[in-house]
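We modelled each protein-ligand pair independently. The example shown here corresponds to the pyridoxal-5'-phosphate entry; the chain sequence is given first, followed by the ligand as SMILES.
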Amino acid sequence: MTERIFNFSAGPAVLPVPVLEEAQRDMLSLPGVGMSVMEISHRSKTFDEIIARAESGLRELMGIPSNYHILFLQGGASLQFSMVPMNFLPSEGSADYVLTGSWGKKALKEAKKVGGVNVAATMADGGFTRVPSREEMSLNPHAAYVHMTSNETIEGVQWKREPNVGNVPLVSDASSDILSRAIDVNKYAIIYAGAQKNMGPSGVTLVILREDLLQHIPENLPTMLDYRIHVENKSLYNTPNTWGIYILSLVCKWLQEKGGLAGMERENEQKAQLIYDAIDATDFYRGHADVDCRSTMNVTFRLPAEELEKKFVAEATAQGLDGLKGHRSVGGIRASIYNAFPRAGCEALVSFMKDFERRNG
Ligand SMILES: *Cc1c(COP(=O)(O)O)cnc(C)c1O
């Protein structure tokens, strides 16, 4: 096998080696099937079992109650920016959006095309470095829903607990921290996430949807944009991303074998802390997010000058630490360290950081 490097990419991102190995082993023929997963019908018994395993794996890991539907859709989290308001924002109504970074802004932009929106809070002024306090949010008690982004992937800002939104349905874009920690699904009406950060390859979008919401969906939506259709057809109205769902099912199995989300959460916190400690130890590195909302998944920081940041990325890449360049909109460095990212990679980054500062500080 050729050697794997440390992949800090924000997404598509690193996958667990045992998952890749199993997929590789069964690539030519799933055991007892004689064909690969990419070559079988999505209506076959074999695929039925795969999608059922993906669903039951998620239900067990996240403790998803039976009054929530689990959907495997396409179009990425970006299509959910439109589907959520098309299904749940009545033309006369209004939805609350809490903006803690770039993805929330994109979700808002799409909602505005559908109906009324209220920006309940925006952290743009501070450069998206934290989440708002309860007092900073002007929530509308009659809102159709409140939309939040549980982890802003670009800025590295994460909600550590859900905002209290009363009885208004809470919708969360959890694309970059789903399955990274235990959460109480009952606090949410909808959780959606593209798979390519923490669950599998790109091309599958997970939607967890509370049953009672279905009754609010208007008639005559385009079929593929109507959650009801996907619920009725168990995500098989059209051909889903069979390969992606298969990999997702293997990722769930890997997480279950690791002991579930509580253990994963502890590991993620420890991994992130290694890097944050290195940032906090010196003035050379400056963390982007406030300490109490910094992300365990995307660690964002700056160096004293852009030239140094370029040099940092180039030298790190040469040493097998790949994908550390920050998003073009915020610059700096971003270390994405999802579930499958090994602790050894965090340790390697920390020692590189210390060495780089010694030579350039
Ligand atoms: C990556 C990301 C998206 C966009 O996902 P796509 O699947 O590419 O549409 C949306 N929201 C968050 C928080 C993300 O990290």
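The longest strand covers residues 116-122.
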